């Protein structure tokens, strides 16, 4: 029997000033998981987080926490804590006072609070910072203190709203690994909001891709990257070649007038489809050995690979990532392993495109 989810959002809708932000959204989050809400600005991910946290009320729908309806419950009555991008630390308080704030409101004993502070500071790697002022800390250190302040309250759920957005690249990467470590050590559930695709792929057990108030796809990082369910997900998660094509029949697709074997089935006969091929899955070979021919029209060295554009006779510009560099203007052959060709149904309308995964 499947265990009940820790968080269950049921038919959530929310509008602001007449603009529909969430439209009949349903989402279940299992306990002790790291779930990332991913999407562009305005897609509804932060609104979803704020509804879970109690900072916004849905126009319709229910927020169920561990089987109990908490839709009308204020934030301070929920078994969760939130860490925002702006950490909301108290500048006039020491680190100890910031971390202890919630515990003192709950009336915890001095010994209990001191023990929790020592544990939290050790967990975030800031032992010895007890008496520092907030203003003396770097952005990364402030972020760690905000997390420490949250975890001392022993929440079953920790909500994080783009908490790494203000950090530089190296520090952001370091903090990603710190959050993964803390999640494993604490055994609590994380719901994390970001628009950074790489961050989502790195940290998550489950990624929820959102757009225009709808969930486009939900799955593991591997599923989201390797098996996108529609063109929006394929285009938003990493680089992709998205090509209009024709499904000749099961396991055979026609791209740019040339037939390619594939492994997908069930798309009909001679039906228009969209094909997704990742740049690293495009193989450049001698012209005579390729299914398609093209000419290298652009090259950028990216460190671990070369990024090239190869223009085919029909004008489509293939994006290619390869450790082997070809000369600018060189004619090449293009081939793709059948397992690396992802077939998707073409949306019949803009509405269908927006809710392709609903």
Keywords:
single chain; five-stranded antiparallel beta sheet; alpha+beta; six-stranded mixed beta sheet; OB fold (Dihydrolipoamide Acetyltransferase, E2P); 25% helix; 358 residues; disordered C terminus; 9 helices; Rossmann fold
Walk me through the structure.
This protein is α+β, with helices and mostly antiparallel strands and 358 residues long. It folds into two domains: 7-226, Rossmann fold, CATH 3.40.50.300; 242-354, Nucleic acid-binding proteins (OB fold (Dihydrolipoamide Acetyltransferase, E2P)). It is built from nine helices and 20 strands. It has helices at residues 45-53, 95-105, 110-123, 139-151, 169-186, 197-203, 221-226, 231-236, 350-354; strands at 7-16, 19-29, 34-38, 60-65, 68-69, 80-83, 157-161, 189-194, 206-211, 214-219, 241-249, 252-255, 258-261, 271-277, 282-285, 292-301, 306-311, 317-322, 331-336, 342-345. The strands form four sheets. Strands 6-7-8-3-9-10 form a six-stranded mixed β-sheet, with helices on both faces. Strands 13-12-11-14-20 form a five-stranded antiparallel β-sheet. Helix 2 packs parallel to helix 4 and helix 3 (110-123) packs across helix 4 (139-151). The protein is elongated and about 80 Å long. The two termini are 25 Å apart. Mean pLDDT is 89; it is low at 349-358.
């Amino acid at each position: 029997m499947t265990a009940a989810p820790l968080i269950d959002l049921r038919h959530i809708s929310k509008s602001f000033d007449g603009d529909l932000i969430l439209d009949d959204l349903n989402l279940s989050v299992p306990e002790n998981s790291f779930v990332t809400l991913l999407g562009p600005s305005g897609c509804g991910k932060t609104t979803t987080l704020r509804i879970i946290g109690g900072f916004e009320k849905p126009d319709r729908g229910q927020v169920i926490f561990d089987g109990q309806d908490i839709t009308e419950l204020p934030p301070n009555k929920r078994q969760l804590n939130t860490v925002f991008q702006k950490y909301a630390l108290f500048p006039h308080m020491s680190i100890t006072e910031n971390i202890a704030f919630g515990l003192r409101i709950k009336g915890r004993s001095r010994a209990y609070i001191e023990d929790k502070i020592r544990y939290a500071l050790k967990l975030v790697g800031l032992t010895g910072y007890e008496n520092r002022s907030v203003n003396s800390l770097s952005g990364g250190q402030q972020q760690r203190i905000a997390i420490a302040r949250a975890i001392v309250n022993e929440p079953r759920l920790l909500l994080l709203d783009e908490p790494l957005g203000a950090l530089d690249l190296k520090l952001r990467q370091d903090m990603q690994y710190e959050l993964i470590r803390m999640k494993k050590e604490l055994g609590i559930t994380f719901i994390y909001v970001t628009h950074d695709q790489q961050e989502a792929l790195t940290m998550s057990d489950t990624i929820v891709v959102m757009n225009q108030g709808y969930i486009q796809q939900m799955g593991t990082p591997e599923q989201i990257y390797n098996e996108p369910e529609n063109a929006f997900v394929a285009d938003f998660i990493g680089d992709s070649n998205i090509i209009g094509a024709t499904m000749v029949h099961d396991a055979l697709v026609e791209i740019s007038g040339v037939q390619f074997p594939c492994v997908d089935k069930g798309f009909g006969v001679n039906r228009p489809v969209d094909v997704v091929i990742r740049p690293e899955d495009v193989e450049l070979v001698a012209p005579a050995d390729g299914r398609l021919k093209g000419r290298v029209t652009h090259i950028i060295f990216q460190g671990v690979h070369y990024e090239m554009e190869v223009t085919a006779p029909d004008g489509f510009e293939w994006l290619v990532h390869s450790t082997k560099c070809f000369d600018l203007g060189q004619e090449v052959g293009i081939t793709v392993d059948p397992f690396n060709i992802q077939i998707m149904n073409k949306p019949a309308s803009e509405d269908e495109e927006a809710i392709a995964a609903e």
